[in-house]
Amino acid sequence: MIRVEGVHHSYDDHPVLHGIDLTLTESRVGIIGANGSGKSTLARMLNGLVIPERGRVLVDGLDTRKHGHRIRQRVGFVFPDADTQIIMPTVAEDVAIGLSGRGLSKADVARRTTDILARYGLAAHHDRPAHLLSGGQKQMLALAAVLVTEPEILICDEPTTLLDLRNVTLVVETLKALPQQVILLTHHLDILHDFDRVLVIDEGRLAFDGAPSEAVDHYRALVSAGGTAPGRNTPR
Ligand SMILES: Nc1ncnc2c1ncn2[C@@H]1O[C@H](COP(=O)(O)OP(=O)(O)OP(=O)(O)O)[C@@H](O)[C@H]1O
């Protein structure tokens, strides 16, 4: 369970989050809001990639300020642009690297790598250079490379942003089938219709917290009322 307690954050004296309190227990949680509203900053706090300036974030009682490494073993994070997440030359190596330092034998690493690539439709690409994959395949690889570590919670920061409709569907169906708790940041509002809970972030504050359709209505109303800063995305 993730708890966010009285979290404030600034970058270079520019306030980005203002007093966020949350307890996240639901299986499927969406986070929506305008560009620059603070969603990614909040998401990155949930596994200790960003430490709050004030307040604290607890994962199963562990404070991200003190237990970042242990928390990141429990909470996987998928970034918006798979290219920035793919770090090894071949597809299999990119998955296997996530298993290093876990005391697994080479045979176990190879077996788990082969299994996860098969599960996510990448078996035929095992030894291919990762940079030659299509955009959708790269996003699936980024997802597989996180899921092979068997996190208890998965945070996905706009994992469908760069994908065409077919690949959006593939990634979304994959996420929805996972047994893990999934926390998904997205500008594709329709993805969230069957989520358990959706948070609307507006200029660093929690503007709405509830059912998906009401959250989307709230976000659209905010945009219509000019409640988000100018020049930001219109919700789809
Ligand atoms: N590392 C950083 N250093 C300085 N400023 C940052 C940093 N990361 C984010 N910001 C700023 O903090 C604000 C919130 O950014 P954040 O990425 O959290 O918003 P977001 O809601 O995820 O936006 P988007 O939908 O565009 O991804 C923005 O003004 C952004 O420019």
Description of the molecule:
- This protein has helices spanning 39-45, 68-74, 82-85, 91-96, 106-119, 135-147, 165-177, 212-224, and strands at residues 2-11, 14-24, 28-33, 54-59, 62-63, 75-78, 153-157, 181-185, 197-202, 205-210.
- It has 236 residues and is of the alpha/beta class.
- It has one domain: Rossmann fold (3-Layer(aba) Sandwich), CATH 3.40.50.
- Strands 6-7-8-3-9-10 form a six-stranded mixed sheet, sandwiched between helices. A four-stranded antiparallel sheet has the order 2-1-4-5, covered by helices on one side.
- Helix 6 runs parallel beside helix 7.
- It is globular.
- It starts with a strand and ends in a 12-residue tail after the last helix.
- Residues 230-234 have low confidence and may be disordered.
- The structure holds adenosine-5'-triphosphate.
- Adenosine-5'-triphosphate binds at residues 11, 16, 33, 35-41.
- It comes from Goodfellowiella coeruleoviolacea.
- InterPro entries: AAA+_ATPase, ABC_transporter-like_ATP-bd, ABC_transporter-like_CS, ABC_transpr_CbiO/EcfA_su, ECF_ABC_transporter_ATP-bd, P-loop_NTPase.
- GO terms for molecular function: ATP binding; ATP hydrolysis activity; ATPase-coupled transmembrane transporter activity.
Keywords:
alpha/beta, Rossmann fold, ATP binding, 236 residues, ATP-binding, binds adenosine-5'-triphosphate
- Order the strands across the largest sheet as they lie in space: 6-7-8-3-9-10
- Please estimate the helix content: 25-40%
* Rg over CA atoms: 18 Å
Low-confidence stretches: 230-234
* Basic shape: globular
Largest sheet: 6 strands, mixed
